[in-house]
């Protein structure tokens, strides 16, 4: 079933659920950098939470996101490996400018992505994407 799910899919998908794709193929360092930059321009500078799931590709994606956040003089609150709701709650409780969670949720292990957390401690609405 996983093979059928991935067959022919090499591009990234962007929706209200965030950005996701096969790490290193559709989901590239350049794309992660661009999305993070746009998010910073919309809500930064200031504090941003950064969490991730345990997928192996999360490490390089985290490095890309941190680099962009640093370039925009944003303070990074690195949460490490954590559940997505933890990062959402952290943004709301701390009054941060936003958050990024590196996860592809229910997708297969070779996938990864970014969920963008609004300063109000929720995911972005369709008109904000």
From TrEMBL:
The keyword Phosphoprotein applies. Residues 13-123 form the Alpha-D-phosphohexomutase alpha/beta/alpha domain. Gene3D superfamilies: Alpha-D-Glucose-1,6-Bisphosphate, subunit A, domain 3 (3.40.120.10). Keywords: Phosphoprotein. GO terms for molecular function: magnesium ion binding; phosphoglucosamine mutase activity; phosphomannomutase activity. Signal peptide: none annotated. This is Phosphoglucosamine mutase. It comes from candidate division WOR-3 bacterium. The lineage of its organism: Bacteria, Bacteria division WOR-3.
């Amino acid at each position: 079933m996983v093979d059928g799910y991935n067959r022919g899919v090499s591009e990234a998908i962007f929706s209200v659920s965030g950005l996701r794709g096969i790490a290193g193929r559709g989901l590239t360092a350049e794309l992660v950098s661009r999305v993070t930059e746009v998010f910073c321009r919309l809500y930064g500078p200031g504090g941003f939470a950064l969490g991730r799931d345990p997928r192996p590709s999360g490490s390089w994606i985290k490095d890309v996101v941190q680099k962009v956040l640093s370039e925009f003089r944003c303070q990074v609150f690195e949460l490490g490996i954590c559940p997505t709701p933890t990062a959402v709650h952290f943004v709301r409780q701390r009054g941060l400018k936003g958050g990024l969670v590196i996860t592809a949720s229910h997708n297969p292990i070779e996938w990864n992505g970014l969920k963008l957390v609004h300063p109000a401690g929720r995911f972005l609405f369709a008109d904000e994407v």
